[in-house]
Each structure stands twice: as structure tokens, then as C-alpha cells.
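Record 1 of the preview.
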Amino acid sequence: MHISHVNTGTAQALSIEGRRILSAIGKHPMAGPVAVGRLGLAGDEQADPSVHGGLSKAVYAYPQEHMAFWQAQRREHGASLFDDPLPPGFMGENLSIHGLLETEVWVGDRLHFAHCVLRVTEPRQPCYKFNAIMGFNQAGKAMAQSGFCGFYLAVDEPGTLQAGEAFTVEPGSRGLGIAEAFAGKRWKHMR
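->
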């Protein structure tokens, strides 16, 4: 298991259905070590702290194994005419990871990196901004149906993170899996 990219972004105005909405969903890869504090990565912003950020959602990790699925979804819905890979940070993730899927991680598991420790807290929930970034109105529904949601992390031990860095998982109580927590959400607004 390793980090392929560490991504940060600043809040910017998006045009969604004729309205200008502030969002920091657009993330870009950072070179070298990135400082990680209790509220997340240095240089990363959240436009709406009521649903993103804070102590329990300081860092968002997304498995890169799902990116081919999203490329296919975008092609199928006419959001992309080409088969170009989606860039790191496209899902709004801070950590583009390999080797750990939602079905293999539980709330309370701790991810040990070389210079910090992060704790799994909850799955990501899709929203209308996700639909806008993906380029089709059924993106949130596709996330709900696939379970490809990624997961939020709290910072137990601040430090640094860097692309290419390996990590290990220290199991928590294993009471609630991320896939189970995500499946238990009510997605009525997505149907």
C-alpha cells in the first residue's frame, strides 16, 4: 500500500446550474513532503466546513483502482470524448492511494505513514458539486451504487506525507466497515 500523490487545493468559484458556488474540490499534486496538521494538509482549503474538513474529515483518501471506472462513466455519459486518465486530485482527494479499498478498511483503523498517523473516520458522501466536477448529473448515483466513495481520515499524529510513501494499516475495533457505513446511508436524493 502506498500514496501515489498528495493533493491540495484552494477554494475557487464554480459555475453550477447558473449559480456561482465556492468549492475546493479541485486538487493538484504537490512535490516533496507536505505538512499534515490536526485540520489537514498545509495549503489545502475547504469551502464548506459544515460538510468537509474539521478534525474528523481532515484528510480525504481515494483508491486509484477506481479511476478506470470513473473514466468509463464519464465517457458513457458524454462528459469526456477521450480516454485520457483522470488527473490526481480529480475526485477531490488529498491522498491518491493504491492497495487499500473501501471493502478492506474500517472506521477506527489507523494508517501508519513514515512521519504521521491517520485514523479512518467515515466514508465520503457524494454531493451536487461532485456531479458538476464529473460532468454528469448521475455521478453521485454512480458513486452510491458502486460504493467507490473513498474515506475521510482524522490526524492522530501530525507530521508529513509524500508521494511514493508506503503505509500500513493497524486494525481498529472492526465494528463498522467503510463499505457497510456507506451502504447504510440513505441516498433518496440520488435516485
